[in-house]
Amino acid sequence: MEEQKTITRDAAIRLTMMPRDTNAHGTVFGGIILSYIDVAGGVESIRHTKHNRFVTVAMKEVIFHEPVYIGDLVSFYARTIKVGKTSITIHVDVEAERFGTPGVVVKVTEAEVIFVAINEAGEKVQIGK
Questions:
Q1: Structural domain of 71
Q2: pLDDT recorded at residue 7
Q3: Helix and strand totals (H; E) in the chain
Q4: What is the pLDDT of residues 49-102, one digit of tens each?
Q5: Tally of CB atoms within 10 A around 101
Q6: Exposed, middle or buried, 109 (CB in 10 Å: 0-12/13-18/19+)?
Q7: What per-residue confidence (pLDDT) applies to 25?
Q8: Is 123 within the bounds of a domain?
Q9: To 5 degrees, how large is the angle CA 62–CA 55–CA 53?
Q10: How many structural domains does the chain have?
Q11: What pLDDT digit, counting tens, does each position of 3-47 carry?
C-alpha cells in the first residue's frame, strides 16, 4: 500500500473579517486585503531569511478572484519566489472559508510582493547583514 503524503500549509496570518472592514455592499474593501497581503509577505520574508527588517517596494500583480464577505475566515498563505542580495519576492495566496458554510474554501486573491531589507536607520542592506 502506497503512503499518501499530506501537504500542510502554515498561514502567515488568519483572521475573521468584521463589519468595519466592509463597504455598503457587505464586501471587504480591496485595500483591507492588500494591507494584510503586505503583512503576510513581511512575515514570510522574516521567516525565510531571518532578517528582521523589510519594507515593501512593489506589488507586481494583484488579482481579485472572488469577493470577501463579513464573517469569512481569511487565510493568507505566503511563499518565497526569489531571494536577491537586498530584495525578496513573495507570492501570497488568499483564501476565504465562507461564514456559515464550514469547509467551503474559496481562493479570493493572490499577489506578488517585493520587499527590500533595511537596517535600523532605514538604509537598504544585504539580506542577513
A1: 13-117
A2: 54
A3: 1, 5
A4: 999 999 999 999 899 999 999 999 999 999 999 999 999 999 999 999 999 998
A5: 10
A6: buried
A7: 87
A8: no
A9: 135
A10: 1
A11: 555 456 789 999 999 999 999 888 999 999 999 999 999 999 999
> 7, exposed or middle or buried, with CB in 10 Å at 0-12, 13-18, 19+?
exposed
Q: What are 20's three cell numbers?
A: 468595519
Cβ-Cβ contacts under 8 Å for 3 (sequence gap 6 or more): none
pTM recorded for the entire structure? 0.90
Is residue 100 situated within a structural domain? yes
Residue 54 lies in a domain: yes
> Which CATH number belongs to the domain containing residue 63 in this structure?
3.10.129.10
| Structural domain includes residue 127 | no
Q: Nearest 5 degrees, angle CA 68-CA 93-CA 91?
A: 140
Cα separation, 73 vs 30, in Å, equals: 16
